[in-house]
Amino acid sequence: MTALGRVGVLGAVVLLLAACAGPEAELAREDSAQAHYDIGLGALAENNLPKALSELRLAVQENPRLARHHYALGNAYLRNRQFDEAIVSLRRATEIDPRMSDAWNDMGAAYVQKQQWDQAIEAFRRALANPQYINPERAYMNLGNIYYFRGQYDLAAQEFRKLLDVIPQSPDGHFFLGRTLLAQGKNVEAREELEQAIKLDGTVAVFHTELGVALLREGRRNEARESFRRSLTLSPTGPEAEVARRHLRDLN
Fold first, then answer.
1. pLDDT tens-digit series, residues 130-175
2. Residue 203 lies inside a defined structural domain of this protein
3. Containing domain of residue 76, as a range?
4. Fewer Cβ within 10 Å of end Cβ, the chain: N or C?
């Protein structure tokens, strides 16, 4: 065989080996990425954020094509209060899969933390644009709270009613709607919603505090006093406790 022939044969062998090694190496990277992803999710479940971030970064590095890897990393950044990094990862997840509503919702939550309200509203709306979103109540609640804190009570009430359309037995939904109605001066409707929240979950101090305010506005002082006392029993410290104590002092 001539030297040229030997070179040709060797070249063919090298190409064959490369072709064989390529898919195997790719599968190995995918398996490794999956392992890092699984470990990262386990660390997230245990609230071990440093380990979760380390593992999920490796998952993204080894297989950046999967939206779920970027979403999990973004969620870990969000929990670790690294909001800019969270937005970058979550946006990448939505670029790969625009229908990933949980990624849009978490992105909105990151924008809320940065007080970038318009971007947050847009992200929550994008989450809700997917008719197959299985957790729309999350986005409705987040939108409602943005509108509430901006003093846009009509819009807030609309979002909380949509939340209750999805989960009628949501104590938080009834509470947030009741608080919004109270801010609108709709005291009777507010009281009814707050009473429903307490009926569903009577262990939350702020529910009783807000009910006390609604009762007080209706002139039902004795019932209001009992609500404030119940709030203090459930949570004797913190901002809500101070509100309840102030009202009790005014009632005595």
1. 999 999 999 999 999 999 999 999 999 999 999 999 999 999 999 9
2. no
3. 18-133
4. C
Decide if 224 contacts 215 (C-beta within 8 A): yes
User: 101 lies in a domain?
Assistant: yes
pLDDT in the model for residue 239: 87
Average pLDDT over residues 233-252: 91
Q: Which two tokens stand for residue 175?
A: 């509470």
pLDDT at 16 over 50: no
Q: How many domains does the chain have?
A: 1
Mean pLDDT of the chain: 91
